[in-house]
From TrEMBL, chains A, B:
Domain Polysaccharide pyruvyl transferase: 141-381
Superkingdom of source: Eukaryota
Official protein name in the record: Polysaccharide pyruvyl transferase domain-containing protein
InterPro entries for this protein: Polysacch_pyruvyl_Trfase (IPR007345)
A Pfam family hit: PS_pyruv_trans
Length: 442, 442
């Protein structure tokens, strides 16, 4: 029994400093917390589930308004918010986003994401003592390392011991085979095999190949793919090849980050469990500023194959605008796992350079949400950013969507006048020095 | 009149966010603060000096113990601490360090450094409305950008408008000449010429050459060199050349960071004012952690011409030790002044990788002090680190000195068991993941 309880039966988790603290997902708004009394507490035995709570009549009254009743495939009626909070979402694989979109505060959206992680992934993983994790992103697209950091954070919180990990750059067939040989004696009842989340299923073949290697090799183990977005980018023959590959595994769960990906996944992978689940970077939680803004508007503009190819409009002369992709914002390299943290930190720093952010990168949106930076999102080429927003973050009060670059700039200027007038608080101050000086000797 | 007062006559300074806050050096321990009633308040006129305070009899009783009476050249008697706080230190150029070494808390040492800055540099610079600043360090030796950041911070606090700056990499003779031509019409009563501090007088010729260029060109302006350490590294003929060059200016002030440099400066530069003053990086103030530790001990080991050439001892197997110089920890490059901030931030990140730090770099010591990381210092080849420590930081309770690398490691281990057992608080957690895993596929 890994889970610990305090004297009132509430769950504790062990932080790395060794002191007991309550699970983050319990830090919901105070009113909701009162309904979080754990059912079926039988003195610390394994039967206690951390994901089912007593629902009082008082909280039945706060209804979740369901925009489309068809969403609730398994419970097709309006549902009290509190009842929703009691559901084991692995049994309701399409409705995990039911509450999140109604939340307007960053902290609440983050808490809800962590609650759903604990609910869905907790249910899937809690029975395992050990995990091995392939394809931890160690490259400069800061969103992927942020996901990796969230995954590691979550495993730590759940108390699952990581026996082995493999950074993307090191996940060769040979190393997958080495890992298999090294841990083949750990039983499939004790060890789960995990694959990094992201936005690269059926679209970035080097990563589908890593998954192929793992799925083919670990046929006897439960495999869970952390939350993904699906982009059907390949030609039909190749789609078919990987579809069959994924369907070949007897115990594969694919978590997906949006309804569009859910629909595709459910259709293409009938052999797999497909479950809606928010992006793992939300495990990082709310992040305190550690740097002041250098620009009024920081435009994180993707320069990869997912760009929609828009042109940056000319800003008004009174606005300082900086446009850059963060893949060129290079992080000091180390050969330990701290590199993944530093990549993430560098992404968080990159975004703090703007009082307001405009971005067409999903993790420009997600990390800005963790930081509390007001921002405008543009979609990528296949709808990933807006699909995510539609499921999880559409209620956020400091986020705007834009269809064109001109609209994005106009909305960013509105956000700037509403929220962006001051230096970032609680950080070292170094503002106003950047563009206003006569730096004649560059 | 740039200085602003509140309704009680206390000084305000304008933060970049635009709200009024009290000067940092007023944030001394509460007891001391009570004696900080400003003398001679005459309704906001320019005669009000910010650096003289009323001294009550109560506080006369808290004597500063003076280790060597000869230190007090101009006031050769034991002095009440409160009376020391009332001195205009530009008139007592050798005793600015009288109080700092008795302070045991990081916050107090930082406050005292900022108080002395305000006292000494405030007195020197307060009459100027404008400044130009040469040789702002934009290279990867993180201590120098940290000094630059402190200088900019201080000018901002004093309300002096920076008309022009020149990063080290851009301070060519031509650019010094350009700056002169551009600002020659700003009167010497209004504009001061400033030169970056550091540890490079009479030792790093490219920087002495920049100063030569500025000093030769700006003969009619007041020039102040921010706090330096002096290392007489050149052959005699070259020392003599630069000595004459510095003495050629009619209004040059050289601030020095330790008593050794004071003695050399006073002897070699009779034409200049030489005044003791702490390192400008202390203007950054106390820094909150933004990253967790990756190692038990981070050894920031200098690999430049100032190393003493020691060999790293083998650590006990239960300790994780990482040895690295921070000049190879490369910062993402931008062409605006934010680069100086990012270089500093990267230095602060580098140090946070250790629960405890060992270093022979002066700004390993100073930035660890700003962060509150317990650390052990070794000296550099010419005594710069220990000389600084002797003047300003020798009372700090979480700092140890070591004469050998073996001693440093042993003392670091002691600090670790006293202070270093937990994750850094208030930062994202990511610890325990670095070295403890079987990462068989590097």
């Amino acid at each position: 029994m890994r889970l610990k309880h305090d004297e009132k039966g509430r769950l504790l988790f062990t932080r790395c400093s060794g002191d007991g603290s309550y699970l983050n997902y319990l830090q919901l708004p105070l009113l909701l917390m009162r309904s979080f009394i754990i059912k079926g507490h039988t003195g610390g035995s394994r039967e206690i589930s951390m994901f089912h709570f007593k629902c009082t009549s008082k909280f039945r009254k706060s209804l979740v308004k369901i925009p489309d009743p068809k969403l609730l495939l398994h419970k097709p009626q309006a549902m009290p918010q509190c009842e929703f909070l009691t559901l084991n979402l692995t049994h309701y694989p399409k409705i995990a986003d039911l509450r999140s979109g109604y939340l307007s505060k960053n902290q609440d959206v983050i808490d809800e994401a962590q609650r759903v992680h604990a609910n869905v992934l907790g249910d899937l993983l809690e029975r395992f003592s050990y995990a091995i994790l392939f394809d931890l992103a160690d490259y400069e697209n800061k969103g992927d390392p942020a996901i990796a950091m969230g995954e590691l954070q979550f495993l730590k919180r759940l108390g699952i011991q990581l026996l082995y990990y493999c950074k993307t750059s090191a996940c060769s067939d040979k190393n997958v085979e080495n890992a298999f040989l090294k841990f083949k004696d750990v039983s499939s009842a004790e060890m789960v095999v995990l694959l990094q989340g992201g936005g690269n299923m059926f679209s970035y073949e080097s990563l589908d190949k890593i998954r192929e290697s793992v799925i083919t090799r670990f046929q006897d183990h439960t495999i869970v793919i952390f939350p993904q977005s699906i982009w059907l980018r390949y030609a039909d023959y190749k789609l078919d090849y990987y579809r069959q590959m994924y369907n070949s595994h007897p115990d594969l769960t694919l978590l997906v980050r949006d309804q569009e990906s859910y629909a595709i996944g459910e259709q293409m992978l009938p052999s797999a469990k497909v479950i809606l689940c928010p992006d793992m970077a939300f495990q990082i939680g709310l992040v305190a500023f550690f740097a002041p803004a250098s620009f009024d508007i920081l435009w994180l503009k993707r320069e990869d194959s997912e760009t929609t190819g828009y042109v940056i409009p000319r800003p008004p002369p009174y606005l300082s605008l900086h446009v850059e992709d963060w893949t060129n914002w290079i992080t000091p390299k180390t050969d330990t796992m701290e590199h993944i943290f530093h990549l993430t930190l560098n992404g968080l720093l990159f975004l703090q350079r703007g009082k307001v952010v405009i971005t067409d990168r999903l993790h420009g949106h997600i990390l800005s949400t963790l930081l509390g930076i007001p921002h405008v999102i543009l979609d990528n080429n296949y709808g990933k950013v807006f699909n995510y927003h539609n499921s999880w973050t559409k209620g956020l009060e400091t986020v705007r969507t834009a269809r064109t670059a001109e609209q994005a700039l106009a909305k960013a200027e509105e956000l700037l006048s509403s929220y962006g007038g001051a230096c970032q608080k609680n950080s070292m101050t170094f503002c106003d020095y950047n563009e206003n000086l006569s730096q004649i000797c560059k």
